[in-house]
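Long-time lurker. I teach an intro course on protein structure, and each term I like to show students one example going from raw sequence to a predicted 3D structure in token notation. This year I'd like something fresh instead of my usual example. Would anyone be willing to generate the tokens for the chain below so I can use it in lecture? Attribution to the forum is fine with me.
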Amino acid sequence: QVQLVESGGGLVQAGDSLRLACVASRVASGRAFSTYTMGWFRQAPGKEREFVSAISGSDSSTYYTDSVKGRFTISRDNAKNTVYLQMSSLKPDDTAVYYCAVDTVIYIRATYDSVSRPGKYDYWGQGTQVTVSS
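-- Reply from a regular --
Happy to contribute to a lecture. Here you go:
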């Protein structure tokens, strides 16, 4: 099974930036990492896990929830089996545990609906805490 390890979280002030990284290991033999759809989700205390961003395995299209558009950027380095989430202009409302996840299904074409549902993802990382102070 695929294993995911996130890193890069921390305590920052409002307006600062952070870059999260998620390294995937034990990907399926003979299958390129680039074909996996990778997602970032977050969960704040007392709230449900919510979609943040995803990058599709079909054509590397990127998707963002409205609250982070223009501030967050998802990218991947397939040679390193790594997906990144560059977060800028951070706000206190961005405080949460951030999780990386992988959807092992191969899509002809992903949609926002298909990449934004937590139930679509098969494996999850342990999470990394992001705290933004005002």
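Some talking points for your students: The longest strand covers residues 18-25. The first helix runs from residue 112 to 116.
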